[in-house]
Amino acid sequence: MVVQIEGVSKRFGNKEVLRDIHLHIPEHSIFGFIGANGAGKTTLMKCMLGLLPLSAGGITIAGEKVTFGETKSNAHIGYLPDVPEFYPFYNARQYLELCAVITDIPKMERKTRIEELLTLVGLADVTSPINGYSRGMKQRLGIAQALLNRPKLLICDEPTSALDPAGRAQILSILQQAKAETTVFFSTHILSDAEQICDHVAMLHEGKIIFQDELVKLQQRFHDQFAYTFTISAEKAMKSLQHVQFHMEIDGDQLIVTLSDDTQRLAFMRELTRQGLIVQSLQPQTRLLEKLVLEVLT
Ligand SMILES: Nc1ncnc2c1ncn2[C@@H]1O[C@H](COP(=O)(O)OP(=O)(O)O)[C@@H](O)[C@H]1O
Ligand SMILES: [Mg+2]
Q: What's the pLDDT band for 225 if we cut at 50, 70, 90?
């Protein structure tokens, strides 16, 4: 485990914002930390960085105990805050060069590391200053900066929240690639973002963890209610599948079919073949977490 959080509580005055948190983050996972605004996500991340004193419990990162105000454990962490700030008149490459100097990256390594990261985040060809960047570009630069030192843990606080769907997809893809060299812990209130790339998730609700597990394990719990999205000519499909007993909905040019078990799944596939319907793509619907959250909270 790269992160072990045991019994952490955090009070501001007499307001208890985190309550007896236990969280274990395995190495090389993408861990989604989900929760509504005000749930306490940022507070826990700041505790992990030693930026806030704990009211109870302890945190260990890469074997190092986190101590308030001390930065030893932070040597293992790359951190992207929710609203990253940069020197506006530098461009991405100059900015990373400055960070590399400040953080003592050996001179020999600097250039290759920076180019590698600029390519990863899609900013290798951008030469204009940061003050003209979109929010998505700033988030991407922030990830590059956080990864500069090859941290064992990358913490990103709501990296996708302020972005449009294309910008969000870019960030998710970068985090997924970053998993090869580090462990990714990111917070979000967008359940589908977590579901797309995470292998582990935990949900924080009013300062308490209400579930945490591997995503596949959570999926198994809901296995019998799985919906699949088929991309086929929906119009044609509806016409030729009218008589069959599956629960189907049309969403744009996609057909969403709810198949309750493997027998149904096979039967549906057979029906498609029989009708000569070509499936362009097939994927499980990413609504698992939504269901889970509704189940837990109601
Ligand atoms: N420095 C602080 N002093 C008092 N209350 C705070 C402080 N920081 C956060 N809070 C409160 O803690 C709760 C959780 O906030 P936060 O961790 O920012 O949630 P999230 O990141 O999940 O949106 C909120 O009710 C917030 O108002
Ligand atoms: Mg927050």
A: low
Query: Is residue 19 within 6 Å of ligand 1 at its C-beta?
Result: no
Model-level pTM?
A: 0.82
Instruction: Please determine, looking at this structure, whether the domain spanning 3-219 carries the CATH number 3.30.300.30.
Output: no
Q: What is the dihedral of CA 74, 78, 84, 89, to 10 degrees?
A: 100
Q: pLDDT tens across 161-217, in order?
A: 989 888 999 999 999 999 999 999 999 998 889 988 999 999 999 999 998 999 888
Domain covering 221-297 in this structure, CATH number: 3.30.70
Segments of the chain assigned to CATH 3.30.70? 221-297
Q: Give yes or no for residue 227 CB within 6 A of ligand 1.
A: no
Instruction: Give yes or no for residue 37 CB within 6 A of ligand 1.
Output: yes
Ligand in nearest proximity to the CA of 36 = 1
Three-state secondary structure call for residue 238: helix
